[in-house]
Design a protein that fits this description.
Layout: E1 2-11, E2 18-28, E3 33-37, H1 44-51, E4 59-64, E5 67-68, H2 74-84, E6 85-88, H3 100-110, H4 116-126, H5 142-154, E7 160-164, H6 172-189, E8 192-196, H7 200-203, E9 208-213, E10 216-222
Parallel strand pairs: 3-8, 3-9, 6-7, 7-8
Antiparallel strand pairs: 1-2, 1-4, 4-5, 9-10
Helix pairs in contact: 3-4, 3-5, 4-5, 5-6
């Protein structure tokens, strides 16, 4: 599902160049659940952005679901993300002027689905929000907003889910409930998961744990039977 080969990412000017990713090699099989841990500033989010095609590396090769991202135009990358990748961020990223139903329907409408709103209803029901369809983000709790974000991420049935600190803005109890839901949906759908987290307990729920230090993958831990929580 994911193949990174000798990925280098440099940010800043030539005089103040920062080596964010340093020769990353990674292979993730379809259906795997992977946790990426590491201190702040180690390059975890940058790696996720590269995999999503939201950041172009300075060197190396990226393949996601059999497609090489490097040669794709920005428009082609956007279509690729829409059709095959779901992304959940720490900050929810919901559209404040749209209801929960409209937020989930947006990617489906962009994909040309004529049943966008019916599908959005089903996705919100799957995350327990069938009674919140007409609520705006400001009328929802943090946990409910993140569940809307999950429903939106799953709406187009992505092959890959990228989650960047999805519990970072939630209290521990709410975070655990949202993650129970996320892992249940990943397991039910057979979705590949790449999860960035500072939470060791959350990382242990993935089948494999990777550590990123100063832009380099330094070790990994197998979590065995804890793959899907």
């Amino acid at each position: 599902m994911i193949r990174l080969q000798a990925i280098e990412l440099n940010l800043g000017s030539a005089e103040r160049k920062v080596n964010v990713l340093r020769g990353l090699d990674l292979a993730v099989a379809a259906g795997e659940t992977i946790a990426v841990e590491g201190p702040s500033g180690s390059g975890k989010t940058s790696m996720l952005m590269v995999i999503a095609g939201l950041e172009r590396p300075n060197a190396g090769r990226i393949l996601v679901d059999g497609v090489e991202l490097g040669p794709l135009s920005e428009d082609a990358l956007a279509r690729f993300r829409r059709d095959r990748i779901g992304i959940v961020f720490q900050g929810f990223h919901l559209i404040a002027t749209m209801t929960a139903l409209e937020n989930v329907a947006v990617p489906l409408e962009l994909a040309g689905r004529t049943d966008a709103f019916l599908r959005a209803r089903d996705e919100l029901a799957a995350v327990g929000l069938e009674q919140r369809l007409s609520h705006y983000p400001g009328e929802l709790s943090g946990g409910e907003q993140q569940r809307v974000a999950l429903a939106r991420a799953f709406a187009c049935e992505p092959r890959l889910l990228l989650a960047d600190e999805p519990t970072g803005n939630l209290d521990p109890d709410t975070g655990h409930a949202v993650m129970d839901l996320m892992f249940a949906e990943v397991a039910r759908r057979g979705t590949t998961l790449l999860l960035i987290t500072h939470d060791p307990e959350l990382a242990r729920r993935c089948a494999r744990r990777l550590k990123l230090i100063e832009g380099r993958l330094v070790d990994g831990v197998s979590s065995g039977a804890l793959a899907h929580g």
